[in-house]
Design brief:
Elements (H helix, E strand, L loop, with lengths): L2 H9 L13 E11 L12 E12 L5 H6 L47 E5 L3 E3 L3 E2 L4 E8 L8 E9 L2 E6 L5 H10 L6 E7 L11 E15 L11 E7 L2 E4 L2
Antiparallel strand pairs: 1-2, 3-4, 3-9, 5-8, 6-7, 8-11, 9-10, 10-11, 10-12
Amino acid sequence: MSYFDAAIKKAFPPQPPFPAYKFPVYTREVTVTKLVTTAYTPAGPGKLVPIAVRKVTTMGLVRTMRFQVAIWTRIAPVRPVRPPQTLLPHSTLAKPGSSPHKPSKGRRDFDPYGDFAFYIDIEGLGMMAFQKFDGIDVEIDQIEYKDSLDTHPHKRPGIHRFGNIKLTKGVIANKKLWDWIHTVMGGNIQRKNGSIHVLADTHDKNAPEITYNFYQAWPCKWSGLRLDGKGAGGLVEELELAVDYVARSK
């Protein structure tokens, strides 16, 4: 052996032999379960019921240096396998190309009501189809009071008042709204009660979804008859009602 080979061998000594493979044997009991139902339920896909207990024997490979060099570098990455669909929450088995969930019918519980389906019923005037309802306004006064040693005022609610209701309606041959405000103009105040009904998407007037009742209403403002020779719209009249109280009955 030359001096050069001896120097290389001294500087880079050979590695110690790799330890042998070890395969410890493990025995464990596994409970076999069965899925009772796969139908969709709000609580989940079904219920797992134990049906048998089996003994499973497995061997665990101890990863050594020889394993990493000789075997591990030759194994391709393995893609993670998705669990069966029946084990996923809110899922069930379905045929290819079909959805596992059944489509809902009509408005769902978390869908808001539309602002286009409504009708208003006024006492003595009957049911009318208004084009627009401006809404209900409630305001509560704040009463502030302060003692001599307080650094800030205290607040409590005072009287509450309801804003006026504004209605918009197309001008037709029926003039009941005009006769009502004309009667009030003559000094004869006729107070009427009424209801605002919010309908479902089916527009079923016999089964309203939401109902607000207003009481002691009388017309305080009327406007309409806006004409335009170049216009292409319909005539509308606007009526403003002063109300004393509003309550929701449904």
